[in-house]
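Consider this one:
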Amino acid sequence: MTGSRLRELAVLFLKLGAVSFGGPAAHIALIEAEIVRKRQWVTRQQFLDMLGAANLIPGPTSTELAINVGFVRAGWPGLAVAGVSFILPAALITGAFAWLYVRFGTLPQAAAALAGIKPAVIAVITIAIWRLGKGAVKDVGLGILGVLVLAAFFLGLNPIAILFGGGALGMLARRTTAARAASGLLPWPVLRAGTRLASFWRPLVAAVAAVPLVARPSLGQIALFFFKVGAVLYGGGYVLLAFLEQGLVRQHAWLTHQQLLDAVAIGQFTPGPVLSTATLIGYILGGAPGAAVATVAIFLPSFVYVAVLAPLLFRLRQSPWMAAFLDSVNVCAVALMGGVTFRLGADALRGWPSWIIAVAALAVLLRWKVNPAWVVLAGGLAGLALAAFR
């Protein structure tokens, strides 16, 4: 029975990983259609519980949802099979694009296509920020928190510190009155979860602090950087931009803004998790071994979190403290996305052709429910067409 279930999980999530264009929301919709409506592996309420649980921990929500489905369907082996199967197609496709980018990225045709893709990507991210922001900023207090986070980002503070500091500040501010009424005690499941996380988080922090990063990264340094990002990444794949821009471009100077934007652009029109962008960046930094190391490192924390917290995840959603923390972290994540998009836009939107493509992409995305992958592809074709008339 377990073997047949593992095969079912592998086939399903390999397929979903190969066709899931459009970002986390599209991935979640596809998974729901397959496991709730078509196969009836879980009830709708169980699916919502798993989705809520995935939103409470760092990492890519849709990938962690797939990992959770695997655990519910086939236990610990299912956890590994579902997660790896969902990630593998995106990693392989992105790896192929990485090879093409490194080999042909400087050719006029490739440069023209990327010149059209990048403003379209800016439009896609801008729409995502707008839609996420409408849901995240639930009151004036959260709006003020978002402004403070944006200011901290432009002042150069570390995105990790901003996320956790902003989350803690917002949680305390929103729960002060309720905490007094409840004698300031956290629910028991939250304390147990914190104890479990601390057991492996402390040595990780110590290891990160002990290893210096240099201008030319080794495979170990690539792995360390992407593992650290995967371990603290709240807010979905787009927030990855803030961590990559701060760490790869500003702090270590491993990439230029141009290369980062190219990587994000390629990640937008490939299927699967947005975090597979790490595959391309790893290839740029260290060839095929660097791509493999970066991919494994950035996704590994998601498997660890789901494995460690699976027995408690459904109960954590009931905690008002965790709900307040999540609300605050979501606002911080949206603000970070806005700050990075502003910086990337300054590089991408140079000259009237780029502005035309960006505005047209915004108009299409606002007017119609179009898969963002098609908008990005259209941007690349527009870039080629505009280059041909120059």
Residues 2-388 form one domain. The chain has one domain: 2-388. The chain is about 80% helix and 0% strand. Residues 235 and 330 are 6 Å apart (CA to CA).
